[in-house]
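2024-03-11 09:14:02 DEBUG pipeline.ingest accepted 1 chain
2024-03-11 09:14:02 DEBUG pipeline.ingest length=344
2024-03-11 09:14:03 DEBUG pipeline.predict start
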Amino acid sequence: MKQVKKLLSFAILLFIFALAASNAAQALTCDPENPKCGREEIFTRSDAARAQSSTKDDSRQWFKADLHTHHTYQNPLKDEIAKYREAGYHFLVLSTKDMQTPKDVEKYSTAEMMIVSGVEQSFLSRKNRLAHVLGFRIKNPYRFTDTWSLKEGYVKLRAKNKDIVLGINHPHDQRWSLEDVLEAADEGVILFELNSISMKHGEFETALWDEALTRGARLYATLTNDVHQISDIDAYGYIMIHSASLDLETIAKSLHTGDFYAEESGCTATPVRYAIVETDGGKSLVIETEGAAKIRVIADNGAMRGSYEGNNALYPIAGDETYIRAEILDSQGRYVFLQPFFLK
């Protein structure tokens, strides 16, 4: 009888331990289809390298990428790609505009650098202006037309590739209204370009992004080079993608979950940790960096909720935020944009 009781007690302990382990595992994993997936986990880099690196506890790597660039048609394509390779890029979307003849760009891919065909397509916005949409992977754009609305355009692009990644290109050009941006997010567009070649360093379209985030849009920020001449390569900005491997499906998952950050060219600051953690007073946003001069925490309507000098920040979440995001500045005032956590 005593032996039966011991076995019963041992079985109960095993059940409790298994239940606890299951709950812990659920807390550390997430559904890739959920837009919040990965956004409440610890985000780390093991060093300040600008190119690919691994973390001690994470098999994923960091890949430098430009999602909006073009063949200049002024230089041999192989020369332009070589310059990107010299600048440490691993992932490149070379987009054909809707008035250009596509080039076979993917044949230049290597094990160290993946090149994907994309399009920059024009569709009519609510301002009756031709707004530019990024789409990849697509090899052939539609011929130029000024009759399709943005919403019709998303349908047309998905007809070419149901798994297409869509983004808003240079919305600072005043072609996009807030309603257009909100509709884009509702239609599954996930990327929002903060800069373009007509803007100076330190100028970004954060106001419209924050307005859309406040209204519930789930859009992740990119910086790009939008290359039109060879001197544009690596001159403005890029993104660093956290991914298990350099293949399109895995890269796309990281983009859909916001597992990347946008960095201004020449910035010497690097994010090391970016996470929401439990603290004595509730939940807090923790940010750890290398080479930062200042860290800013931004919430609804672009309001700055916290400003911190140096490499570390701990922001207590008040509970009234729809989202929170962070900006890191180096000593020269160059930026890193960390993606938003969606809290409501």
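2024-03-11 09:14:41 DEBUG pipeline.report The CA atoms of residues 2 and 8 lie 10 Å apart.
2024-03-11 09:14:41 DEBUG pipeline.predict end
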